[in-house]
């Protein structure tokens, strides 16, 4: 009679044991059992046990060329954030405006008493005027009254100076402004490849801030998605290593996992999609993931050509990306290509100099733009002098005095409790560049109807709520699809970084974030208010 030894091939608890905790733990102290179990699972058969030891490849680099209008702003030497968010007046720091103004005024023999005050640097006494670009921050307020070099250079043709008056002062070519005021985004494109290529690396609807591989799409008439690489790219040999990260599984041979590691306790990072695949990465092939370095140049599109892996048995294996999906693929480029921007990794960021809240009033179909900070100062309600109040008094002033049975007087007030720096936008259908009507929020201006004579509220002063066409300021418009129903918060702040040569770069960065709470106001219309006005109301 044949004997069965099934008990030797699987692990079973002792039915006579009375300690349930030890039975559930199933602790083992026999290394021979580990070897038998590995033999049973086929881990000693040598299948799929090879290891990559060498990688041969060719990394082709296609340059991202500067825009023809700004040849001195090369993406290979200047951070992309500085190029995209640059403004025509970004070179004109306060010190340069003072120095250039002093030099030009001395050369042209200008007298501060005879020129227009707009060409002079003003001191910033509160309340702040509309000329916020000419207010001197501390400690430059001591130099108030001097000539503004930027204002002189901007209106040099009107002043009859010409470019010769500014020769030798190092004034660069003005940067191109890529800001789309109606969409509140940046849009630009960079030529890709040599001068004969028509490929464009387009940045559609860039919101500002970090620029990465996913910020751009390749466009052009070429049918192939492969970017023509630079000629004579050398072959590269590199050595792969195991992928290591915090909480990674141990090598499966004779190592015990750390019981304190909880893979499910690592939440995915919303800004990096690859972290959502961490659990799947660990569950499939655990530690059988390898990485190898690829020499790359910033400001280029890197394309891997003919990557070949040599395993520990000397067998070559050609690498190819999966056809079903790709993690770092750029629209219009090959699966082997990756856009490498020169980024400002650790710039110095200043506090917010402009803060604007956009809120949508769906009941009245009006978009409200609230200025909360301009030129680095939190806006406060403007103060009225006694003379201003006497010339245009309030229609109805509340009075709690008088006899209990006395007569009361009421006045009709069209509107009251208007908040300053609140700017409404009304929906209108306006013709677009192609003549087709398009819907836009058009900026309007409130009037204080609570006074004897209607008085306009302060106009917007922040650059976020202003628009220019061919150097002429126009009425600001916003596309309805730009602002979500919950509203948005826009901020501008100074950012300081350096290029590859160490030269400092200063620009104003835009930031946008969802609004956590909608704006609220106590604005009222058609009010019958108690009045103590002694003059007849007209």
Helix content: 10-25%
The shape is extended
Terminal-residue CA separation: 122 Å
Q: Work out the strand percent.
A: 25-35%
User: What structural class do helix, strand and pairing data support?
Assistant: mainly beta
Count of individual beta strands: 25
Mean model confidence by pLDDT: 81
Main sheet overview: 8 strands, antiparallel
How does this structure look, described?
It is a single chain. This protein has 538 residues and is mainly beta. Among the domains are: 94-166, no CATH class; 354-491 and 511-531, no CATH class. Helices cover 10% and strands 28% of the residues. It contains seven helices and 25 strands. It has helices at residues 20-25, 31-40, 80-84, 94-108, 149-154, 278-283, 386-391; strands spanning 52-63, 179-180, 185-191, 200-206, 217-219, 235-238, 241-242, 290-291, 300-311, 316-318, 337-340, 348-361, 366-374, 377-378, 410-416, 422-431, 437-443, 447-448, 455-456, 467-469, 472-474, 477-478, 488-498, 504-514, 524-530. The strands form seven sheets. Strands 12, 13, 14, 16, 17, 22, 23 and 24 form an eight-stranded antiparallel beta sheet that branches. Strands 1, 6, 9, 10 and 11 form a five-stranded antiparallel beta sheet that branches. A four-stranded antiparallel beta sheet has the order 2-3-4-5, with no helix packed on it. A hairpin with a 2-residue loop joins β13 and β14 (377-378). The model is unreliable at 125-132 (pLDDT under 50).
């Amino acid at each position: 009679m044949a004997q069965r030894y099934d008990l030797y091939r699987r692990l079973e608890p002792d039915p006579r044991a009375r300690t349930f905790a030890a039975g559930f733990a199933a602790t083992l102290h026999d290394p021979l059992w580990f070897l038998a179990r590995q033999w049973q699972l086929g881990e000693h058969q040598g299948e799929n046990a090879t290891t990559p030891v060498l990688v041969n490849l060719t990394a082709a680099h296609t340059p991202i060329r500067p825009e023809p209008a700004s040849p001195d702003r090369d993406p290979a030497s200047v951070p992309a954030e500085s190029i995209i968010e640059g403004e025509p007046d970004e070179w004109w720091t306060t010190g340069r405006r003072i120095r250039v103004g002093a030099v030009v005024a001395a050369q042209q023999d200008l007298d501060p008493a005879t020129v227009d005050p707009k060409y002079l640097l003003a001191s910033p006494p509160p309340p702040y005027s509309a000329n916020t670009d000419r207010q001197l921050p501390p400690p430059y307020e001591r130099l108030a009254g001097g000539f503004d070099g930027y204002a002189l250079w901007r209106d040099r043709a009107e002043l009859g100076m010409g470019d010769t008056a500014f020769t030798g002062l190092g004034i660069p070519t003005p940067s191109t402004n890529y800001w789309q005021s109606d969409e509140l985004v940046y849009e630009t494109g960079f030529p890709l490849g040599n001068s004969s290529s028509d490929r464009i690396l387009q940045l559609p609807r860039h919101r500002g801030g970090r620029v990465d591989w996913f910020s751009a799409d390749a466009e052009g008439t070429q049918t192939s998605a492969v970017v023509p690489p630079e000629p004579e790219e050398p072959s590269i040999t590199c050595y792969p290593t195991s992928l290591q990260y915090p909480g990674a599984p141990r090598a499966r041979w004779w190592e015990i996992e750390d019981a304190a590691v909880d893979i499910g306790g690592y939440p995915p990072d919303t800004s990096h999609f690859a972290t959502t695949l961490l659990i799947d990465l660990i569950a499939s092939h655990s530690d059988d993931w390898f990485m190898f370095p690829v020499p790359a140049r910033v400001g280029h599109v890197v394309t891997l050509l003919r990557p070949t892996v040599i395993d520990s048995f000397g067998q070559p294996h050609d690498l190819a990306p999966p056809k079903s999906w790709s993690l770092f693929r750029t629209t219009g480029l090959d699966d082997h290509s990756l856009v490498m921007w020169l980024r400002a990794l650790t710039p110095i960021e200043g506090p917010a100099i402009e803060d604007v809240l956009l809120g949508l009033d769906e009941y009245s179909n009006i978009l409200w733009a609230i200025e909360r900070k301009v030129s680095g100062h939190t806006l406060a309600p403007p103060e009225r002098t006694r003379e201003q109040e006497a010339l245009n008094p309030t229609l109805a002033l509340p009075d709690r005095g008088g006899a209990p049975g006395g007569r009361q007087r009421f006045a009709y007030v069209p509107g009251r409790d208007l908040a300053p720096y609140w700017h409404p936008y009304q929906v209108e259908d306006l013709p677009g560049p192609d003549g087709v009507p398009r819907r836009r929020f058009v900026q309007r201006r409130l009037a204080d109807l609570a006074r004897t004579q209607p008085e306009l509220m302060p106009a917007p002063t922040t650059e976020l709520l202003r628009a220019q066409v061919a150097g002429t300021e126009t009425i600001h418009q916003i596309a309805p699809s730009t602002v979500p129903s919950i509203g948005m918060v826009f901020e501008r702040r100074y950012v300081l970084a350096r290029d590859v040569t160490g030269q400092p770069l200063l620009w104003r960065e835009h930031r946008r974030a969802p609004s956590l709470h909608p704006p609220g106001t106590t604005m009222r219309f058609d009010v019958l208010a108690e009045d103590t006005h002694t003059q007849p109301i007209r």
